[in-house]
Amino acid sequence: MAREKGGMMRRVLEGVIALLALFAVAIWANGPWSIHLSWQRDPATTITIMWRTSPEITESVVEYGLTPEYGQVAYGTRFSYTAARQEVVWHMVELTNLKPNATYHYRCGAPGYWSRDFTFTTAPPAGDTVTQFTFGVIGDTQGGYSVTKEIFRALQQAGVRFILMTGDFTQGAGQVEFDKWFEAAGEVLASIPFIPCHGNHEMLKNTYFDQFALPGNEKWFSYDYGPVHFVHLFSQNEDYVLQQRGWLLKDLCTTSQPWKIALAHHPAYNSGTQHGCTPYVLDHWVDVFERCGLDIYFAGHEHIYERTWPIKQGRIDYSGVVYVITGSAGAEFRTPGREWWTAASDACYCYILVDVMPGRLRVTAYRLDGSVIDSFTLYKR
């Protein structure tokens, strides 16, 4: 009898443990995923956190602070839509009044459904020319997510403060593809802000705009990070390029930041044979870049890495603009040609690190194996 009771108790205990395990799995399944950071306003004093949950979760909460004990709470918004016959639920919380150049701890979710602890670091204040930092730039991912995963890991290991992308996340801009993209990113973007440009494969679909919280109208916008003024542009077609020209001229020529960097999807100068140069970018933006003293224009689209010599008024001039095609971060790469403007080029999967230091910018392009494709340095007196 004692043996039977012992066996019964053991089975009851095993059943309880199994139920607790199932309960824990259910909670985990409802917890946050696709967590990523961006900013909609000043990156020195704000950060925006977005994440996904299952439909039952209705609260959008972030606990945060300068220590793992947090001490502050912020609430945000929840929105949803239907994709592939499933309800997609996003949560978004903007943290404000943060200290510049400070590292914060946070967790997101809702009571009983928290993420693990993550950290992020705010930007140095605009105009700070002393603080050194590194940021990453990547090109088209477009379905090659095993490569994308490796690149995000490399950027994380490099200690980048934020990551920029020149567009073309997916082939067809569907939610299932974006889910695979976020799976490739893993938890990297939960600690490193990510600010993309719109590519032609995003197709102006709401799906793209639903995934990210960006400044302004989310198509073209600008912001300052330390001594660098960044301009994100929307190069989908000539009408949009013309629409931005006046705004671009005012924005780029009136900033007092010593460094000026622009990025969009379509390249100006391009030796690649798939697309070649983009005439409407050459016609409507390049003269603005030159007039306002742009330092670098990053673009994607061609799936090659290419850097030009500094160009001004259609010829090599060391007071001109450097144009960089950011290569492939997963998309099938293509073969570059070689033109009068080409300083360096390669056909490979790659990522770019930009080191911002007092008086200089160092730009280095790396292959997946860590070998250097190209490196150049710009100086400011």
Reconstruct the topology from this structure.
Blueprint: H1 2-30, E1 33-38, E2 47-53, E3 61-65, E4 72-75, E5 77-83, E6 86-95, E7 103-109, E8 118-121, E9 133-138, H2 145-157, E10 163-165, H3 175-185, E11 194-196, H4 206-211, E12 221-225, E13 228-232, H5 238-254, E14 259-263, H6 279-284, H7 286-292, E15 296-299, E16 305-308, E17 311-312, E18 315-316, E19 322-326, E20 342-346, E21 350-357, E22 360-367, E23 372-379
Parallel strand pairs: 9-10, 10-11, 13-14, 14-15, 15-19
Antiparallel strand pairs: 1-2, 2-6, 3-4, 3-7, 5-6, 7-8, 9-21, 12-13, 16-19, 16-20, 17-18, 21-22, 22-23
Helix pairs in contact: 2-3, 5-7
Query: Class of the largest domain in CATH?
Result: Alpha Beta
Query: Which structural category fits the helices and strands?
Result: alpha+beta
H/E topology pattern: HEEEEEEEEEHEHEHEEHEHHEEEEEEEEE
The beta-strand count equals: 23
The low-confidence runs, each spanning 5 or more residues with pLDDT under 50, are 1-5, 12-28
Placed side by side, the strands forming the largest sheet appear as: 12-13-14-15-19-16-20
CATH topology of the largest domain: Purple Acid Phosphatase, chain A, domain 2
Compute the CA-based radius of gyration.
23 Å
